[in-house]
Amino acid sequence: MAKKSGKQTFGFELIMDLYGCDVTVMSSKKKLAEYVDKLCILIEMKKYGKVQLPYFGLEKPHTKGYSLLQFIETSSITGHFSEYWRTSYLNIFSCKPYDHRMAAAFTKEFFKAEKMRVRYIVR
């Protein structure tokens, strides 16, 4: 583990809120799986198992959509998508350092987001 101000660093978390996303991308199971595959290659993370992509939340328009979970050997990539609001909420958490700026730029471009809010936390 890396040291952080005299303390040990456990991991690195990138939190991305995307607005005005392309609905055809965020509502496609195939495109979401492609996103995970390309992201893992880009940030040099090894996938652990298959990506999970359930589609649920059908009772309310704003909760309807896919969620994703991809375990990686150093933690996980998660995402939640609201087709109604055209928003995507993604997190990358890893004990292994990665280029969070590159991951954020790739994510914004992949989902064709109009706006993006990013937070990066060293834990």
CATH topology: S-adenosylmethionine decarboxylase
Distance between the termini: 11 Å
Spatially, the strands of the biggest sheet line up as 4-5-6-7-3-8
β-strand percent reads 35-45%
How many strands?
8
Return the CATH class.
Alpha Beta
How many structural units, i.e. domains? 1
Shape: globular
Number of helices: 3
Helix content: 10-25%
Which superfamily, in CATH terms, is the homologous superfamily? S-adenosylmethionine decarboxylase
What are the segments in which pLDDT stays under 50 over at least 5 consecutive residues? none
Radius of gyration: 15 Å
Task: Give the second-level CATH assignment, the architecture.
Answer: 4-Layer Sandwich
Q: N-to-C SSE series? A: EEEHHEEEEHE
Class of secondary structure makeup: alpha+beta
Biggest β-sheet: count, sense, barrel? 6 strands, antiparallel
Average pLDDT level: 95
Q: Secondary-structure blueprint of this entry?
A:
Elements (H helix, E strand, L loop, with lengths): L1 E3 L2 E3 L2 E8 L3 H4 L2 H14 L12 E2 L8 E8 L2 E8 L4 E8 L5 H11 L4 E8 L1
Antiparallel strand pairs: 1-2, 3-7, 3-8, 4-5, 5-6, 6-7
